[in-house]
Amino acid sequence: MTKVTRERVEAAYRALGSGDRDKIVEYYAEDLRWLVPGNHPLAGWYESLDAFLDLMARAGKLTGGSFTMDREVIMVGDDCSADVCRNRGLRAGAPEDSRSPYERMDYMVFHFMRWRDGRIVEGHDGLFGDDATLFSQFWAPFAPDGTRIAD
Amino acid sequence: MTKVTRERVEAAYRALGSGDRDKIVEYYAEDLRWLVPGNHPLAGWYESLDAFLDLMARAGKLTGGSFTMDREVIMVGDDCSADVCRNRGLRAGAPEDSRSPYERMDYMVFHFMRWRDGRIVEGHDGLFGDDATLFSQFWAPFAPDGTRIAD
Amino acid sequence: MTKVTRERVEAAYRALGSGDRDKIVEYYAEDLRWLVPGNHPLAGWYESLDAFLDLMARAGKLTGGSFTMDREVIMVGDDCSADVCRNRGLRAGAPEDSRSPYERMDYMVFHFMRWRDGRIVEGHDGLFGDDATLFSQFWAPFAPDGTRIAD
Amino acid sequence: MTKVTRERVEAAYRALGSGDRDKIVEYYAEDLRWLVPGNHPLAGWYESLDAFLDLMARAGKLTGGSFTMDREVIMVGDDCSADVCRNRGLRAGAPEDSRSPYERMDYMVFHFMRWRDGRIVEGHDGLFGDDATLFSQFWAPFAPDGTRIAD
Prior knowledge:
The structure is a homotetramer. In chain A, about 40% of the residues are buried. The first copy, chain A, has helices spanning about 5-20, 20-25, 50-60, 130-140, and strands spanning about 30-35, 45, 70-75, 80-90, 105-115, 120-130. Chain A is about 25% helix and about 40% strand. The first copy, chain A, is an alpha+beta fold. Chain A has four helices and six strands. The model of chain A has no long low-confidence stretch (mean pLDDT about 95). Chain A is globular. The termini of chain A are far apart. Chains in contact: A-B, A-C, A-D, B-C, B-D, C-D. At the A-D interface, β3, β4, β5, β6 and α4 of A face β3, β4, β6 and α4 of D. Chains A, B, C, D: This is SnoaL-like domain-containing protein.
């Protein structure tokens, strides 16, 4: 059994950030399941590493590449880890100075992950305070004035 | 100017229910705009009669044809009308006896419509109590256990 | 039976605005029930005219007297009416230029009211688009940073 | 500096469960801050250990003492911990077999806590999937039919 350590969590994030699938599969299982919170269009379980990577690509596209995660803390336990990140992003096409919750993301997100044999097999995103409301506003299928946005 | 009357509102709903586009355009403008409440995948403005009819078709498909609206009251004013309907439906594939808000719709919906020259040019759906929350649950892109549903 | 007319709806609002209970009871039944949307602290059914007037007072206090309703249209039907208002307000203590949904209200609200013998016996507030979400944010029991606000 | 360990997290929960304030202050700082998610009546920051204990008492009362937390995993990091619990409860007065989200709580909750010198100084509750929506329904100030509930 490979113990879950802070170093391994950090290495997993680096692999994911590299976009190199060969590196990613060292840390993420092919049968990974990932749950996105809320009831907006991106919410629900993603079943497989490919579905998860498609989600990452879609989130990147919907934010015009502005989406960033800064890890603040990492915690580990038996076959599991949690981390808290500050996530920031702006919906593609939104004014740079927008403060609308439908266009601007800037809040803490936590990730709870279950590991098996050194790889992540299950992940949950979560939010604090009333940020789950803001998160569903951010990923709503429309601009602040309600105009629907094509995927 | 064609006055908005209860009879005309009823006739508009009958035309919409018939699915006959020639009849529909007697009551709905080609440049109709319609706002669906919430921040789920179907929410936002539909801009054009065709977009609105596509929405109706999509709602019908997502509910396996079980979606119904029973009008309870109709109110009219200057170039506008409002009506209250009891809307019911079950998500396609859900168990017949499901009571989950993610699968069962059964609540009152308010429609506010602006008319011009005898045709509806703008519509808003509205909900009462905490039904807006239930509505976003119903149209969420996943089953009660979070499993994502293909469109 | 007293017919519901636009004039009577307007007179009811004027009576309510006057704060004069003798005038109010000409238009609002003593057993009035009123439903406030959302799941924030003010949401739910208010059962009796006094409970409704207490609610109005509480909303006034929570907005430091800044709460206003501008009626845009009135619609009438058999023993019922609906109207659409633009509601604006700022939470008491919030910065004058706040744009936070937790502090600033500025959206359309509809009211659906049932009448009996010339008096309102049941009322529902409702919202369009994703404004039900904004409404629950506005009446949340905390400031934008989550600090709880005493009633 | 007292290191945060799984044992210390478990001891903190035991102390809290004992209701013995002398034991509680061994693990929780007097200036504890705790953030409850959502925009329902209980949401927001609780500022002080006493405010937090009042919240616990209020949650217990609103659930008629049925509220339980079963810890599933504990994770630790530098001066912080996270745990995942299955929280269950029924609103006081609700039918024993209620499945309404306004009356029944049964989902996973994530706690993220910051520690200082061996005591918890800050806590955040978090939820997964669409449970933040269910959580605001559960703590809504009304029964499933909208009837307001006195505190």
